[in-house]
Automatic annotation (TrEMBL):
InterPro entries: ExbD
Keyword Zinc-finger in annotation: no
Transmembrane portions of the chain: 21-44
Name by which UniProt lists this protein: Biopolymer transporter ExbD
Length: 101
């Protein structure tokens, strides 16, 4: 029988502990995945199938440095601005108007 030397270099890698850790992690992952599936059912609100086509509720009046007047990006004269605002006000009495100058 041959006696091994004590100073011999250990050249084999034992992967058994690493595989044990991998199996334990896999087991924990499987258990946690199935545990998160369980729970109570929540009735979520349903989205309406019709898209919202409502127009903006505010009117914007823009005045450029050269004196041009715009109502919601459309150029208007002062008389036309007055008549359009009167029409909008008649349709919606609490219509907010934003002035940008």
């Amino acid at each position: 029988m041959k006696v091994e030397e004590e100073g011999k270099v250990y050249d084999d890698i034992n992967i058994t502990p690493m595989l044990d850790v991998a199996y334990v992690l896999l087991l924990i992952f499987i258990i946690m995945t199935t545990a998160t599936v369980q729970g109570i059912t929540v009735n979520l609100p349903k989205a309406s199938s019709t898209p919202s086509l409502s127009k903006p509720k505010t009117k914007a009046i823009s005045i450029t440095p050269d004196g041009s007047v715009y109502l919601d990006t459309y150029p208007v004269s002062l008389q036309e601005l007055e008549t359009r605002l009167a029409q909008y006000k008649a349709a919606t009495p609490d219509l907010p108007v934003v002035v940008k100058a």
